[in-house]
TrEMBL record:
InterPro entries: Metallo-depent_PP-like, YmdB-like. Fe cation 1 binds at residues 8, 37-38, 175. The keyword Metal-binding applies. SUPFAM superfamilies: Metallo-dependent phosphatases (SSF56300). Keywords: Metal-binding. It comes from the Bacteria. GO terms for molecular function: 2',3'-cyclic-nucleotide 3'-phosphodiesterase activity; metal ion binding. This is Metallophosphoesterase. It comes from Truepera radiovictrix (strain DSM 17093 / CIP 108686 / LMG 22925 / RQ-24).
Length: 258
């Protein structure tokens, strides 16, 4: 089974590039996952964005620390099993922290997201939340984990914690693709899949306002960067719930698309 994981889709340019990529290469994959927590101008996801992603061929959309930024998420998370938020929110949070759906091959795939606790909201322990879930899932499950975390050390430790227990553990949130992909005990790992959006930016936002805030310490509203976008993604080949290969993708949208 071939799985595509599309890294954090940022605002309009990211969505445009992701859709173009899927139109061109979507058929090559049996199951597609995308992080969509930045698609609404950097902050959350709306109903319209979710529908566009699902229509483009995405099977599951994951969120993260921006889950609640767009108010549609409260409803959407209750309506569809194709949108998930971090598993380690305290009990009672709307929606699902994991979902199990069928791939084009007929195999079932479980997608889980956890959020790290370093420089992010203090949620429940992601290690313990994953442990509890994995003991609950059937032994032969194909599980892909989205590690939405800021600190490399935390993602690396979660990756090791999951090695030999899941098909893949892929980092999101930091928006710059890392080059440390590996397969350990059948588990594919990458510290960050990278951002799908305008790479010539402060992780998706225009530099001007970001630099102003750093230099002056004063508030200023961020504005999403515009221009040509790149899809950052990972292609996985899975068999029997474990990874056979992991390959990073960086695909620049064609000239004139922006
Ligand atoms: Fe994030």
């Amino acid at each position: 089974m071939r799985v595509l994981y599309i890294g954090d889709i940022f605002s309009t340019p990211g969505l445009r590039a992701a859709k173009a990529f899927l139109k061109r290469f979507g058929e090559d994959y049996d199951f597609v996952i995308a992080n969509g927590e930045n698609v609404a101008g950097g902050f959350g996801i709306t109903r319209k964005h979710l529908h566009e992603l699902l229509e483009a061929g995405v099977d599951v959309v994951t969120l993260g620390n921006h889950t609640w930024d767009a108010k549609d998420a409260f409803e959407l998370l209750e309506e569809t099993p194709r949108l998930i938020r971090p598993l380690n929110y305290p009990p009672g949070a709307p929606g699902l922290g994991y979902t199990t759906l069928e791939a084009r091959t007929g195999e079932r795939v479980t997608v889980v997201q956890v959020m790290g606790r370093i420089f992010l909201p203090a949620l429940d322990c992601p290690f313990r939340a994953l442990d509890a879930l994995l003991t609950e899932l059937p032994e032969a499950s194909t599980v892909i984990v989205d590690l939405h975390a800021e600190a490399t050390s935390e993602k690396r430790a979660l990756g090791e914690f999951l090695a030999g227990r899941v098909a893949a553990a892929l980092g999101t949130h930091t928006h710059v693709q890392t080059a440390d992909e590996l397969i350990k005990r059948g588990t594919a790992y990458l510290t960050d899949v990278g951002m799908t959006g305008v790479q010539d930016s402060a992780i998706g936002m225009r530099f001007d306002e970001v630099i102003y805030r750093f230099v002056t310490g004063l508030p200023k509203r961020y504005k999403p960067a515009e221009g040509p976008a790149t899809v950052c993604a990972v292609a996985l080949e899975l068999a029997g719930g474990r990874a056979k290969s992991v390959a990073r993708i960086q695909w620049a949208e064609p000239d004139g698309a922006a």
